[in-house]
Design brief:
- InterPro entries: AMPK1_CBM, Ig-like_fold, Ig_E-set, T9SS_Plug_N.
- This protein has 432 residues and is mainly β.
- The protein has three domains: 169 residues, no CATH class; 124 residues, Sandwich (Immunoglobulin-like); 105 residues, Immunoglobulins (Immunoglobulin-like), CATH 2.60.40.
- The chain is 2% helix and 45% strand.
- It contains two helices and 35 strands.
- A hairpin with a 6-residue loop joins β2 and β3.
- The longest helix has 4 residues.
- The two termini are 27 Å apart.
- 41% of the residues are buried.
Length: 432
């Protein structure tokens, strides 16, 4: 039996039918989030997943599945797009890139301003899987390359659409950095007053600007992200420009990240009932049916899930199986009329989808949902929707201690082009 404790995090006020959402922190502060379809508490505006025929997608540094999608503009670094679609038919897909501001609004720059090479590229003839009656095709594309190169640093969104129909299949965010200047950062651990064992993390950065940044107090900004949740980036509004060379950037008091954030993990790289995360397996079904070990609330105080450890997600081989995996969860409390529990995680890029809403299971007190996922190793989490807002941590009563991952981003508002450049990115481990 798997023991799960879902931990405290700010609430997301998410009007489902509108393009604007609000994040409410534990201290009651509010930050607007505009644009996009408000599909997720974790993803940036504009990140999109269409569903069928898409089975899985990932964008990460080449050879490092699951790592943050960051590359340096002048270095010999590449990102690899990986995705799989259901069925035997091969389709051609069009890949387009768009440049964005730090808040993920469009920079409105034309492609020729931030791209060298082709404005769009085409991907076809995905590899058909082997040794399984459930058929799927696997596609991958590595960039930059001779067809596509980046002239401008910053936030980017990769859009993949069907070349024949024009329908958008999915989008994924990534970052292009210049690695300019000198950046160092740490994370303060703060015990919040008036709360029992609630920890707040407050990233702090010091940055030495390159010579071309003449007025850092006007043209520099720093954002922080927790656990690769790019839709929840926070700007450092406490700044210090008193030094002659070095500038300081901190989040405001009370506006830090939840240091108690936690998730569960499921390891189904090996399809065997001997595996601790698998309760039962039906290998004769197409696809293979799995019964994932039960998740029980309030007992997940030592999961071993560490966000600084990168999980690979889906296995990349075409002889790996897709499964219909049933997750079962005992919330430990009554789910009231009008409330719904959702499952989200690495397997769907932390999107909140109607198809992943739990329903009553056969076992008393349990709710369940079946997810089509490939053999792999994933993080996941249950959240609650009460009809008006998503509560990301409604089931906890004790706090786990999972180490958090942070990224610091230094942006430069170029006065000549009036566009944002990403000067530097640094990965930082949270306090242990």
């Amino acid at each position: 039996m798997k023991l799960v404790n879902i931990l405290s995090l700010p609430l997301l006020l998410l009007p489902l039918l509108y393009g604007c959402a609000y994040l409410e922190s534990a201290e009651g502060t509010r930050e607007s989030r505009t644009g996009g379809d408000a599909a997720s508490a974790f993803s940036p505006p504009g990140q999109f997943t269409s569903g069928s025929p898409l089975l899985y997608s990932d964008l990460s540094p080449s050879g490092q599945p699951g790592a943050a999608p960051v590359l340096t503009i002048s270095a010999d670094e590449t990102l690899t797009l990986f995705f799989e679609t259901e069925g035997i038919e091969s389709a051609q897909y069009t890949l387009r890139f768009s440049h964005h501001n730090p808040d993920w609004s469009s920079s409105s720059l034309p492609p020729e301003f931030y791209l060298d090479g082709l404005p769009e590229v085409y991907l076809s003839r995905g590899e058909l899987n082997r040794n399984s009656p459930f058929r799927y095709r696997q596609y991958s594309y590595t960039f930059p390359n001779r067809d596509i190169r980046f002239r401008l640093s910053g936030n980017y969104m990769l859009r993949i659409s069907n070349s024949q129909t024009g329908n958008l299949l999915f989008t994924l965010p990534f970052f292009v950095s210049e690695n300019e200047g000198s950046l160092r950062a740490s994370v303060e651990r703060i015990l919040k007053a008036g709360t029992e064992r609630r920890i707040q993390h407050r990233p702090v950065a010091r940055y030495v600007s390159p010579e071309f940044v003449e007025m850092p107090q006007f043209d520099l900004s720093v954002f922080y992200a927790q656990n690769q949740f790019w839709g929840r980036m926070k700007e450092a509004l406490e700044t210090d420009f008193s030094g002659t060379a070095e500038s300081g950037f901190e989040l405001r008091q009370g506006d830090g990240f939840n240091g108690n954030f936690a998730a569960a993990s499921v390891d189904i790289r090996t399809l065997s009932q001997l595996e601790p995360d698998i309760d039962n397996i039906s290998p004769a079904e197409v696809p293979v049916e799995l019964l994932i070990d039960e998740d029980i609330d309030n007992l997940y105080s030592d999961s071993g899930v560490d966000f600084t450890n990168i999980l690979p997600g889906a296995l990349r081989t075409t002889d790996s199986e897709y499964t219909d995996a049933e997750f079962r969860f005992d919330p430990g409390t009554e789910i009231k009329a009008g409330e719904s529990v959702y499952l989200t995680g690495d397997f769907n890029n932390w999107q909140i989808e109607e198809k992943l809403k739990l329903s009553d299971a056969s076992a008393p007190g349990f709710q369940s949902v079946t997810v089509r996922i490939k053999q792999g190793h994933y993080r996941y989490k249950y959240i609650l929707y009460d009809g008006e807002r998503f509560d990301l941590n409604p089931f906890e009563s004790a706090f786990a201690n999972q180490r958090q991952e942070y990224h610091a981003f230094v942006y430069f508002r170029d006065p000549e082009t009036q566009s944002y450049r990403l000067l530097n990115v640094l990965r930082v481990r949270g306090p242990g």
